[in-house]
Amino acid sequence: MTSRFEWLTIDSVDPRRLADFWCDVLGYVVYADKNGAAVEIGPDPEEPDEQRLAALRGGPAVPSMVFVRAPEAKTIAKNRLHFEICPIDSDQQTELKRLLALGASTADVGQGDGRSWVVLADPEGNEFCLARSLAPGEFEL
């Protein structure tokens, strides 16, 4: 028996704002919005729910994300868990400019200079890393 990683829950002062940011970053869509108290996002579903459930049961799937309202803002400390994202159709610098325009900011978590990744923070201060590009010509096996 095994389990599947179905979604990641993130506390947020403004769940809809953070969900919209991550939809723009990842190309996701909103699955459900419970009056702004909880917002679930995920890949644009191309199949009916029963087919998505069958695929989820059949093997690894891309998890959705759920943003839930929390009364307090993020504390000033490095996240113990964070996303690593990779551009798929542009180089890293082009994607960095796009993410900053969407509302991300650069972050210093003690990573030092000369790293191949860029540490960023979403609009509520949750760190994530922009890693290498997977675009054709940028990354080859």
Overall number of domains: 2
Tell me which CATH architecture of the largest domain applies here: 2-Layer Sandwich
The oligomeric state is single chain
- C-alpha termini separation: 33 Å
From the 3D structure, determine the CATH topology of the largest domain.
Signal recognition particle alu RNA binding heterodimer, srp9/1
Biggest sheet, in brief?
A: 4 strands, mixed
Helix tally? 3
Class based on secondary structure composition and strand pairing? alpha/beta
By DSSP, the count of extended strands is: 8
Q: Helical residue percent?
A: 10-25%
SSE layout:
Blueprint: E1 7-12, H1 15-26, E2 29-33, E3 38-42, H2 49-58, E4 64-69, E5 83-85, H3 92-102, E6 105-106, E7 118-121, E8 127-130
Parallel strand pairs: 1-4, 5-8
Antiparallel strand pairs: 2-3, 3-4, 6-7, 7-8
Summed up:
By secondary structure, this protein is an alpha/beta fold.
Can you offer a commentary on this structure?
The mean pLDDT is 84. The longest helix is centred in the first third of the chain and has 12 residues, at 15-26. The chain has three helices and eight strands. The strands form two sheets. It has a four-stranded mixed beta sheet with strand order 1-4-3-2, covered by helices on one side. It folds into two domains: 7-69, Signal recognition particle alu RNA binding heterodimer, srp9/1, CATH 3.30.720; 83-130, no CATH class. The protein starts with 6 loop residues before the first strand and ends in an 11-residue tail after the last strand. Strand 7 (118-121) and strand 8 (127-130) form a beta hairpin. It has 141 residues and is an alpha/beta fold.
